[in-house]
Amino acid sequence: MKTFHPAFSALILAALLPLAFAQTPTAAPAKKIDASAPIAKADANGVINPGFQKAHESFLARGKAGPIDVLFLGDSITAGWANAARTHIWESFYGKNQPANFGIGGDQTQHVIWRIENGELDGIKPKVTVLMLGTNNTSAAPSGHTAAEIAAADKKIVELIRAKIPGTKVLLLAIFPRGARKNPQGVITDAAITDAARRTEVINAVNVELAKLDDGKNVRYLDINASFVGQDGKIPFAIMPDQLHPNTAGYQLWADAMKPLLTEMLK
User: Fold this and answer.
1) Structure pTM?
2) What's the pLDDT score for residue 46?
3) Is residue 242 among the annotated active site residues?
């Protein structure tokens, strides 16, 4: 068998090692990621999504810019408050409370954990933090998570908030309902109906566990999901056109339903 001089072998190894590490993904798309592991959004090469990073940096800047009395923390449903059509609702209900919106589209529990552990709550002292998170974790296996995993991750987030900001109260919202979504052709397929039913089962189970986190004082749980469901038990398209994200009318329902408890918690 042919052998190489030790020095030559070392040179080959030195050349190959960087390639091996460069091609090793931090989180393969098909691999399930722990719902409570603080992992940022990254591609197969470990590069953090630029949009996610930009939003994260803007939140860090907002924290340094001035006081925050009410903080909203979550995914695209929370981020949707920034839509220009909802500015009047946001200002009417929360403007006097120096509000901040730390919502990022597509975020799962592990992304918010990463954000918290990378400074988003540092140096701020909101009176109330509104948290609603977990619907994006309900995708099918292998990338999705069980109800128990999602609930445990949300519990960890609540604990992180309380540890980082002992003076804040957490208004923990039930994960909003979702329905079968239309495909690009505008058709609701049987597969979409089955997926929505499965996700709904997970969401309902998570909400049961989240309700147990209500301690009557520092952490309050609020389920406003009935506001988004019609008498037939379905989500009206006039409130959630895509059966996931509320439209402006839906955000008005959200603000109205949350107002009594939020007002109480701000006192």
Assistant:
1) 0.86
2) 67
3) yes
